[in-house]
Specification:
Blueprint lengths: L3 H29 L5 H36 L1 H4 L2 H36 L8 H28 L20
Length: 172
Amino acid sequence: MLDTRRVLKILHEVSSSGIIGALAAHIVLLSVASTTQMLEYAAVRRGIEAITRYVLLPSLAVVLISGLLSIAVHRPFHSAGWAWLKLALGIAMFEGTLGAVNATASEASALAAKVVAGEAPLSSMDDVLRHEWGGLWFILFLSIVNIVLGVWRPRLSRRKPDEPAVANELGS
């Protein structure tokens, strides 16, 4: 039988894979999308929007919730600086994903439809795309940092004033 801690860890890791996969798919689709064929480009934009809505955002929600619950149920995490840093970065990821990835994907999709309809010039996509690329790379970077923190688990707590400094883990 699985205990709560293991279930939360599995949910957290599988959902982390969903985040990385959704970001990778978003980047690949954006990379291969050609703005010379606007009907096809608009279809790719709808696909990107769907990946964001149905894979990225739910995965991010599960990662945040499972991370919070893991801190709550596993006492050693209460004083682990790396766990609190992961939480802070997770909140930054959530806000960044909503603003820089989800919102710009939706905006770019709507703008592409306007370009196809002749209601907006193609050059109007430039600012949205620049913002979207920056957001994607930033969220991908935060995702990787969070994974590294979860695997590495560095000591990020302060030494108490009455504790002697130790040269290394072997005590030499």
